[in-house]
Each structure stands twice: as C-alpha cells, then as structure tokens.
Amino acid sequence: MTDQAIKLPEKLWQETIMGLRLRSRGSREAACIWAGNRTSAVQHVEEIFFLDDLPGVQGHTLRHNVPRNAINLLFSILKEKGYQIIADVHTHPNSWVGLSEVDMEHPIEYRIGLPMIVIPNYGKGVINYKNIGVHVYQGKGRWKIIKSDEVEKLIIEGDI
C-alpha cells in the first residue's frame, strides 16, 4: 500500500468516536476533521475539530451542510495553529461505510491523498478499524477504497 500513514493517538481515536456519537444524537450525520502536520513519511493527528461546533452547520439524517463561512473559520483556525487537514471524518446512519455521491462530491478539501473516513451507525456501538470505511481521494472525482485489513497499516497508533 502506498498511501501515507496516519499517526493517531488512541486518545484522539476515542475522542473522535465519542464526539461524533454525542453530536449525532443517534439520528443525524456528524463530522469532524483530524488536523495536524503532514511530513513526507507520515501524517500526525494532533487535534480534532468537530464541524458541528462551527456556526451555521446543520446535520441531517443523510447529509451534513457546512456553510462557506464555517469552512472559512475552520481554515483560519487551522492556519493560526499551523495545522493541515489530515482526514475528513463523518458518520453514516447504518453499517454501510461506502461513499455516497454527496460525500464524493463534497470532501473538506480536494487534495490528492485526502482520506475520508466513514464511521457507521452514527458512532453507536463498537467502532473499530475493521468496521469503518476509509477512502483516499485520487483526483478528478475518483476515490480509492482501503480494504479493512489494510486500514490498520494506514492508521497507526501513536503518541502526541
């Protein structure tokens, strides 16, 4: 596998799942980004930003609307902290963790290599690397699916 590894501390993995579960309230999509620094070898996740906490964001059963001013605010915060987007993470209502047409057309940024991670069941139940969806943007609207047995090679546990 040639995709750039993501170093994600266990603490931030747990914060991601709990934060998405809380914000989805079991009935709507929720989203966040993993932010940090990308080097040539690895992407280091240092902080999570929940899109639902930005002004004007609306989660719906099957989609998530983030207004332009909220995205601009997020990018300003990232710039101020010296962070880059590591991954786009969101929930789906059931166990299906593929990408919808809306997902494919509206990633947080159009960067080749951007991972989009889908968490099933609005984050309820047991969530681990085996039951999430991981897709990597290839450019020109194309996404590569990362097989479940390769996810643990892409997302590696690490300390902050």
Report on the structure:
By secondary structure, this protein is an alpha/beta fold. It has a single domain (5-157), classed as Cytidine Deaminase, domain 2 (3-Layer(aba) Sandwich). It has helices at 10-24, 68-81, 101-105, 148-154; strands spanning 5-8, 31-38, 42-50, 58-59, 64-65, 84-91, 115-119, 133-139, 142-146, 155-157. A hairpin with a 3-residue loop joins strand 2 (31-38) and strand 3. The chain is globular, with a radius of gyration of 14 Å.
CATH H-level superfamily: Cytidine Deaminase, domain 2
Number of strands: 10
**Count of alpha and pi helical runs:** 4
Main β-sheet description: 8 strands, mixed
H-E string: EHEEEEHEHEEEHE
Level-2 CATH architecture: 3-Layer(aba) Sandwich
Task: Bin the strand percentage.
Answer: 25-35%
Could you say which structural class the secondary elements and strand pairing correspond to? alpha/beta
Q: Which strands sit side by side, in order, in the main sheet?
A: 9-8-7-6-2-3-1-10
What is the name of the CATH class? Alpha Beta
If you compute it from the alpha carbons, what radius of gyration comes out, rounded to the nearest whole angstrom? 14 Å
Terminal CA distance reads: 25 Å
Q: What are the low-pLDDT stretches, counting only 5+ consecutive residues below 50?
A: none
Provide mean pLDDT, rounded.
Answer: 91
- How much helix is in the residues? 25-40%
| Shape, principal axes of CA atoms | globular
Total discrete domains: 1
CATH fold-type name: Cytidine Deaminase, domain 2
